[in-house]
Write a structure and sequence with these properties.
With 374 residues, the chain is α+β, with helices and mostly antiparallel strands. Helices cover 32% and strands 22% of the residues. It starts with a strand and ends with a strand.
């Protein structure tokens, strides 16, 4: 294209607190025992299902996850709470999510050799925002001292790639020269820490990406975005019902269906072939095949999903160098996973190497970018 658009810098901010599978299982099993004791009569009568124990081995086999980071660890392992204890901040204080975003944004700006004066717009794209308005993006804009405009967008686990898509389009159209796309994924408040099948899935993190015109970029590592591709197909198999209408529904805003829940088996069966076909078609539209790709930065939800998608794309198992995995340390960080992988595993590529960044998740939604190192 006449005005190439590049990713010129990324930032990864990791919370200071981590929770191992062993810690999580100890707390969950104690919670299960307490629940079973308190509901013994109903369980005996068949009115309530007993909670069964979990194990660190089960979690790692089912997901590939060994640990996860938490913005606030306090409260998560308390069997009478099972939720992070995040102190409420005053309206004139920087919100938790904005603070996470600012950390990652500054790292990305440093990597791209940019100052606040260079940024024209900010997009905060993530799975949840902690309030409706003012937008978290506008709050971060103010904290960084950036002029221009900012807005939030939510597309569940594809929010990060969809946000970069919008930035790419604005730079290509000339409506902005340099954008910050920030993904402050504060997932722990929406995780059901008392559910054996999902309590281990999520971790907190914040990533940021600088997207700009190639002619203004001067960083050490730059990737031209050759094209983008997006797909959405409605499904209830991954869902979170928490929202402002709960008050009008006269319903419990903290019930299990208000938290993350999914039909994992259906998601696995339906999403994996969708993603493989999506990426294959995207590469073909660029006259490329899987053999041309040096690095696959895939969404980090489940090791078994990534393994199957890699095998469908390559006809064999992908090596860790080809398709790096970060969910063992970070767990599922919603939309941030593919960009964590990109942040940690891109500097070794050489000019001309091709890569694919792809996210997928609730919606269903899939977002991909074919990139080439400059």
């Amino acid at each position: 294209m006449s005005n190439p658009v590049v990713i010129s810098g990324t930032g990864l901010w990791t919370p200071p607190h981590a929770i191992s599978n062993e810690e999580l299982v100890t707390a969950y099993n104690a919670h299960a025992d307490l629940f079973n004791t308190e509901n013994a009569a109903a369980i005996e009568a068949g009115e309530v299902a007993a909670k069964v124990h979990s194990s660190a081995e089960f979690i790692e086999k089912a997901s590939g996850i060994k640990s996860r980071f938490a913005y606030i660890k306090d409260g998560i392992l308390d069997i009478n709470r099972l939720c992070p204890n995040i102190p409420k901040r005053a309206d004139d204080e920087l919100s938790d999510q904005a603070e996470m975003g600012v950390h990652a944004a500054r790292l990305a700006m440093a990597a791209a050799n940019k100052t606040a004066a260079d940024i024209d717009a900010i997009i905060v794209s993530c799975t949840y925002t902690q309030r409706s308005y003012p937008a978290i993006a506008v709050e971060i804009q103010n904290a960084l001292g950036v002029e221009g405009f900012a807005f939030d967008m939510l597309v569940a686990c594809s929010a990060a790639t969809f946000g970069i898509h919008r930035a790419y389009e604005m730079v290509a159209a000339g409506t902005a020269k340099t954008l910050l796309v920030i993904n402050p994924e504060l997932t722990s408040p929406q995780c059901n820490w008392g559910n054996r099948d999902s309590h281990f899935i999520f971790g907190d993190v914040s990533v940021a990406t600088v997207v700009e015109s190639a002619e203004t970029s001067n960083s050490d590592h730059r990737y031209e975005i050759l094209s983008t591709k997006a797909l959405t197909s409605y499904s209830n198999n991954i869902r979170s019902n928490f929202g402002f209408v709960d008050r009008a529904n006269d319903s419990d805003p903290y019930s299990a269906d208000r938290l993350f829940h999914q039909n994992g088996r259906k998601v696995f069966k339906e999403v994996c072939p969708m993603v493989a076909n999506h990426i294959t078609e995207h590469l073909q539209s660029n006259d490329l095949g899987s053999e041309d790709v040096s690095r696959w930065w895939l969404h980090q939800a489940n090791i078994n999903m990534n393994s199957l998608i890699g095998k469908k794309l390559l006809g064999r198992d992908a090596t860790p160098e080809e398709a790096p995995i970060v969910l063992d340390r970070y767990a599922n960080t919603a939309s941030a996973g593919s960009l964590i992988a990109f942040n940690l595993y891109h500097e070794d590529l050489v000019a001309g190497d091709y890569g694919v960044i792809c996210s997928f998740g609730a919606g269903y939604s899939i977002g991909s970018m074919v990139v080439r190192k400059v």
